[in-house]
Write a structure and sequence with these properties.
CATH topology: Growth Hormone, Chain: A
Strand content: under 5%
Shape: globular
Largest sheet: 2 strands, antiparallel
Number of domains: 1
Structural class: mainly alpha
Helix content: over 70%
Distance between the termini: 28 Å
Radius of gyration: 21 Å
CATH class: Mainly Alpha
């Protein structure tokens, strides 16, 4: 890997270009608005499941949360297999195909069979998040400690750029057709799946396989959990790594919940002039976040070299807290929402990129990176599950989606407090 490091790093970053169309178009920009529109039109905004009535946004949050839980529980077994057999790339490919093909199946979304339709989203989410376990685990293998901030930022930036290009292309096609974007949007889900699959396999053609595990003995399905326990035991003895994960668990719970639920929140809580304005404005705001996210990832990478990773992470979490308070109490009109969206864009990509590279820098010397990143992703997915469920319960319990900001705000506050307990070091300061 060392001899062809630059080519391998570019191939690795290309997978971000490939798969980032899913979180942008499916998780953020188009599918949530499409889902809200069709469920309000055909179901009155209420979904009947297992004899219960749930609001469309609550049902959406529960579906996504369940997919996170599946990834969290399965990734230790799968990453253990990937480390043991040295076929990390194969698992990355399997989850990529699952995610992209399920995304294409969303073309058949039908509110008359809402359970089956949401299964497509459920498996698409598993494919996307499951692939990231193995994708992230490549970072310490393909980049030196000094390179990891830059390479991680490059991946996120390429992802933001590629997904924005596809979203703009979709919008332009609708403009040329002379139709509103959400009147006939299902074909875009197929395009997303094809884009993801095509560019992913360009990445796979250059990306090497991983090394076999340092562990000896026969592999069993329980080996992944045993290896996770060994990783947990090792992390427990590393104060800096352990305390970073405590902080990361909470603040990333807030970040990821915002990413997943922001458009649904804005569609229901901001006072829009009409449906057409709402749809156009939400698309514009997502593009704003994307392009500012590219700049934010590189700006924070540079600031980290000067001021240190931990200082930049703390400052970013503080900005998240301010934004949550503003959204909860003051954001009712579109112009206010655009200001917040722009602010989110500047810090969204930066904190994700910085978190990934900071964790990577703290890892011990090992060949079993998938297992360490499995624990990273395990904590992330458990946090995501709790975050989206808390969001759903806050709305269901109060009858007001605006109150769903409260648990997100609490997550950031706890993350910031815990970040001050992380000791500095020569590698991460």
């Amino acid at each position: 890997m060392i001899e062809n490091r630059k080519k391998i790093q570019n191939a690795w970053a290309m997978y971000d270009w490939a798969n980032s169309v899913y979180p942008l178009i499916i998780s953020s920009a188009i599918f949530p608005v499409f889902y809200t529109k069709v469920t309000e039109k055909n179901l009155g905004g209420v979904v009947h499941v297992f004899g219960s009535e749930l609001s469309n946004s609550v049902f959406y949050a529960f579906t996504i949360a369940l997919s996170y839980l599946v990834v969290a529980m399965s990734s230790p077994i799968l990453s253990g297999m990937a480390d043991y057999f040295g076929n990390k790339k194969r698992f990355l490919q399997i989850f990529c195909v699952l995610g992209s093909s399920s995304t294409m199946m969303l073309v058949f979304f039908d509110t008359s069979n809402i359970m089956l339709s949401m299964m497509y989203l459920f498996f698409a989410s598993i494919g996307f998040w499951g692939s990231l376990v193995f994708y992230n685990a490549y970072l310490p293998e393909i980049a030196t400690v000094e390179e990891q901030d830059r390479v991680s930022a490059k991946g996120f930036s390429l992802g933001y750029l590629g997904s924005s290009i596809l979203l703009i292309a979709v919008i332009v096609l609708f403009v040329l057709k002379g139709t509103r974007i959400f009147d006939d949007i299902r074909y875009a889900f197929v395009v997303v799946g094809i884009w993801w699959l095509f560019f992913a396999f360009l990445s796979f053609s250059k990306l090497p396989n991983s090394n076999k595990s340092e562990l000896s003995g026969k592999f069993s399905l329980g080996s992944g959990w045993k290896e996770l326990k060994l990783v947990m035991k090792d992390i427990a003895g590393r104060t800096q790594l352990k305390r970073f994960l405590y902080s990361y668990f909470f603040y990333n719970m807030g970040v990821q919940t915002v990413m997943i639920m922001a458009v649904t929140f804005a569609a229901k809580s901001v006072i829009w002039e009409n449906d057409a304005v709402r749809e156009q404005s939400l698309i514009i705001s997502i593009l704003l976040i994307q392009f500012l996210g590219i700049a934010g990832a590189f700006i924070m990478s540079r600031f980290a070299r000067k001021f240190g990773n931990l200082s930049i992470i703390r400052l970013t979490i503080f900005f998240w807290i301010i934004l949550c308070i503003c959204v909860w109490q003051f954001v009712y009109w579109p112009i206010q929402f655009f200001v917040v969206a722009g602010s989110v864009g500047l810090i969204m990509g930066g904190i994700q990129s910085m978190s990934r590279s900071t964790y990577s820098k703290m890892l011990p010397e090992t060949k079993d990176h998938a297992s360490y990143f499995s624990f990273y992703d395990f904590s992330e997915k458990i946090g995501l599950t709790l975050g989206t469920v808390s969001f759903a319960f806050a709305e269901a319990g109060t009858g007001n989606i605006r109150n769903s900001v409260i648990p997100i705000l609490i997550c950031f506050v706890l993350g910031l407090i815990l970040s001050f307990r992380i000791p500095k070091s020569d590698v991460v300061n």
